[in-house]
Amino acid sequence: MNKRTNFLLAVILIVVVINLAMTSIILNRQVADSGVGDSLDPDIARHWGDQVVELYNRSDHQALHALFHPQARVEISEQQLAAQLQKLHQLFGDIDEHAFVNAVRLGKKGSASYYQLFFNARVSGRDGKATLKLTLVVENDAVSLYGLGINASESLD
Question: What's the mean per-residue pLDDT of the chain?
Answer without folding.
Answer: 81
